[in-house]
Design a protein that fits this description.
mainly alpha; Arc Repressor Mutant, subunit A; 12 helices
């Protein structure tokens, strides 16, 4: 068993935010839980088997535990098939974040190009509302703008002081705020507004919204309408 795996998963979790705007389908949290389960099972099962006198029961117990483990692993692998996309293969081979930041400092991109690229990125995202696509990733943006993935990542980090995940979700939060206070959306659920704003799950919507505004979407909406009533 590789005891460095939890650290590798944690490093991967940081890296994916450089390339993806939605990470619920590729975050591998389930693998962390599976690793912990396997470790606990690996330690405890031998002691349990010692106290079980029946050899057939020993075999049945062991087979049941590992059948559950492999079934869960198979199900999660199918459920997160996006992990095996071409972009993730590229991601898996990239350097550590500290190395990437060092490379940015030595980058050959000129200051004029950085300003031009940042303007082109904003224009492309805002005009076409690309942030509304829930599975939008940096490769999609590269295809739209004609700017390389590495250059996009560098410009977003340097000019906007955010990674790709934070950058795209900041647009989604801003868009969600406009929907939450619109009268024609007053009867629409918070969850559906999150989906309409480009978020892939209710949890990611709530987490990102609260991070940017310090309040939940529901509180933001209620506060707005309460203030309007008091003015009336």
């Amino acid at each position: 068993m590789n005891f460095k795996q939890p650290l590798s998963i944690k490093k991967y979790s940081r890296k994916i935010k450089l390339y993806f705007s939605s990470i619920h389908a590729i975050n591998l949290k389930w693998l962390q839980h599976t690793t912990l389960f396997f470790l606990i099972t690996f330690i405890t099962v031998p002691f349990i088997l010692i106290f079980m006198q029946n050899m057939k029961m020993n075999c049945l117990f062991g087979q049941t535990i590992f059948s559950i483990f492999y079934f869960f692993l198979f199900f999660q692998t199918l459920n997160q098939s996006a992990v095996f996309s071409d972009l993730n293969y590229e991601l898996a081979s990239t350097e550590d974040l500290k190395v990437v930041k060092t490379k940015y400092a030595k980058s050959q991109i000129k200051k004029e190009e950085v300003a031009l690229f940042s303007q082109k990125i904003k224009q492309c995202i805002e005009q076409d509302k690309l942030f509304l696509v829930s599975n939008f990733n940096i490769k999609d943006l590269s295809d739209k703008t004609g700017i390389s993935i590495h250059s996009l990542s560098q410009v977003i980090n340097q000019e906007f002081n955010m990674n790709f995940f934070e950058f795209i979700n900041s647009y989604r939060v801003k868009y969600a705020k406009t929907l939450l206070i619109r009268s024609d959306y007053s009867n629409q659920s918070i969850e559906s507004i999150g989906y309409d704003s480009g978020f892939g799950t209710k949890a990611s919507f709530y987490t990102c919204f609260k991070k940017h505004t310090s309040v939940t979407p529901a509180n933001f909406r209620n506060n707005f309408f309460l203030q309007n009533k008091s003015l009336d």
